Amino acid sequence: MGWTIEIAGVTPLTVEDNAKFNLRTQNLYNEVGLKEFIETFIEVEADIVAASASTIADNLATVREQVSAVNAPRNVTIKLDGTTKFEFLTNTCIASPRVEFHETIDEEGNGDSHWRYKLGIYVKQVGNVGGGGGTQPTGAGENVFELHTSLKTIKDSDRTTRKIWMASCKAKTIQEAKSFIVGLRPKDDYLHEEIEMFFQDQRVTASWVWEVRQKGDIFIIEEPMSVVGYGARWIDTPRVDDASPILHKGRRMAFRMIIRGIVRGYNKKLVENGIPSAHFSETKERKRLTGEETSGWGEPKLVDHIRGLYEMPYEEVWISTEDSVPTPKHGSHNDAEKLSKVPSDGKMPTYTNV
Predict the structure, then answer these.
(1) If the chain, 354 residues long, is cut into consecutive pieces of 10 residues, what is the mean pLDDT of each piece?
(2) Are strands 76-80 and 3-7 parallel, antiparallel or unpaired?
(3) CA torsion, points 59, 65, 70, 75, in degrees to nearest 10?
(4) Hey, CA dihedral for 154, 160, 161, 164, is it positive or negative?
(5) Minimal CA–CA distance to 92: which of 140, 127, 44?
(6) Burial of 351 per CB tally in 10 Å (0-12, 13-18, 19+)
């Protein structure tokens, strides 16, 4: 029986009459040493033998039609004496195996007895970029290829304020590509994420943006405290005959301390309950004038309908007769250390092939 080559098509095509083949395989590596693809080139030569030149021509046309009529990849199996030795299946290859060319070979006497022809078959398989050969994320797919990743770090005044991760890959299915890319997501609670899927070439790209911000479910923006009336008063006493009034120092009076701010967040209830506690405590010389406070009533206002951001203003008015202006107690809401920490670079740079 010898060697036979079976190509699945419109009708199964088996090449066995005086057939011979050459098989060449090459590996393509990226710059970090991972195998991106495995390419196999199969060159087949065979004879069409028939009783008449007309039948040979008909059979040759049939072969050409069978290898060119189907655009989709087809399984290719190479057997020796009926036992499979090489098998290239569409479900383990990338848009292949496919017959790339069909060529007739002109030999003397072909029209009377036989006609020789040649087929070129191309096979493309994935390497180990997605499924091995390096640190991989949990659940990494085995069919990932053309993987590209990058990390951009932005600093202001020598302080990291922004990071942008980007990742892109192809896979045998769009679902595998997305699953792999999502597995590369950096570990941080406050990321802006964008994922784009290209269905025709099974590619998925993603970007994640981190920006420094205040930790927690709410954040507070507070104005500097304003003080009105502190210190000695100056009194003017009018005089007759249009003379200038006399300016002289009067008795020291009570002064007011005013604190205003805004609570912001994405949880309406937490924003409503997030107004900070009083910045002073009442004493014999210091009282809170709640009757003069004009904000902090009602409920939080939705100020960003897309992101779901709520705001709630607050105000404190105090009157004091103390000798000096007391220092307000901000608690933890005015603590600079509450700014979010810069997340680590993660493992994405180990995938880069740039």
Answers:
(1) 76 71 88 81 83 77 76 84 88 84 74 75 81 42 77 90 92 88 84 92 92 76 92 86 87 92 89 91 95 81 87 95 93 66 72 40
(2) antiparallel
(3) 30
(4) positive
(5) 127
(6) buried
User: What would be the CATH architecture of the domain defined by 3-126?
Assistant: Beta Barrel (2.40)
What confidence score (pLDDT) does residue 352 get?
41
| Per-residue pLDDT at 351 | 46
Task: Give pLDDT, residue 249.
Answer: 87
Nearest Cα to 105, choosing from 65, 48, 55?
A: 48
Strands annotated E in 182-285: 192-198, 203-211, 218-222, 226-228, 232-237, 246-252, 255-265
- The answer to whether residues 233 and 249 touch, using CB atoms and an 8 Å cutoff, is yes
Length of the chain equals: 354
Structure pTM? 0.60
Query: For the chain, which residues make up each domain, given as ranges?
Result: 3-126, 144-213+344-351, 218-336
